[in-house]
Fold this protein.
Amino acid sequence: MANKYSHSMLAMYRACALKFKYRYVDKLVPLQAESRHDADFGNAWHAGLAALYAKDGSVKKAQEAFAADYAEKSYPAVLPIRSQGKTFSNGLAALKGYAYKWREEDAHMTVLEVEQRTDSEADKTILKLDLIMQDDRDGQIYPWDHKTTSSYLDNDFWKRYEPNSQVRFYADYAKTRFGDCGGFVINAATFKHRSRAYTPRQGPQKGIQLPAGDWFDFARLVLNPNADCIQLERDNFTYWTARIEADKSSGQWGYNTDSCHQYGRECEYFKLCSAGYSWPRDEELILGYYRQACPKILPEGRCQLDLNHEGDHDSSIAVAPDYTVETEGEVEYAVS
């Protein structure tokens, strides 16, 4: 039986087939991973929003979830140059700012699902939508995807989503499942840092002095691909999954050196590729830098134990609270 595939798996294969093999076929993960600050911060933001949109959600619970997912003591001493605004304190403050900014808008929404993983045997897909909501103003269903970034939420940011395979992939799922949907929501949050005070000369804050330090901003975009675009994405999915299955059958995987260095970071498999190692031929050498990890996905995340471990799966390590949550002005997040 062929494997099931997610959007992120196909994206990795398109970027570098050999990287896909190392991760999903050989199941190798680095023993000492490079800085994952952006990914860890993004995961913590997702955890915070999941708690905010949960039944009886509140800003306090969202902040607690954010802090538990990525504890302050785990942050690097020096943040990546493009991630200066992704600090622990800015993340906590942003959750409160997010709730206030969208409170009136989200009061029209009924939460149907939060972080629900769906596996389909029929079409070989794996999906995990961050949120599915129903708007009482039009009765339509809206699947959501949360995005964290260090970019300005301007036209340069939004244009990456049209066309976008992930948007079409998820919109197709929502329309198939619910019969129709009002659109796919990109729910974006940016985290930035100003080294000095700044007074904009244009835009909505023109003439207002903005203080130095961390800041955040939020915006949303609704996209609704038409039937032709969705069919194109279905054909695209079939094409790439067939390529993966063919590579598995032949045992031949191409590689792409353009993916070795991205955004100032090395690929997590750089040590392996730069030395010309191949699994399992060079197993003894590779296991000095990598381990085979359990591929099991649990509701709370991927199992962190070794491949073929015995006993229960384990996805996380408990972290004691090491922060204080601001409670003054606390509000319950009023979504249905």
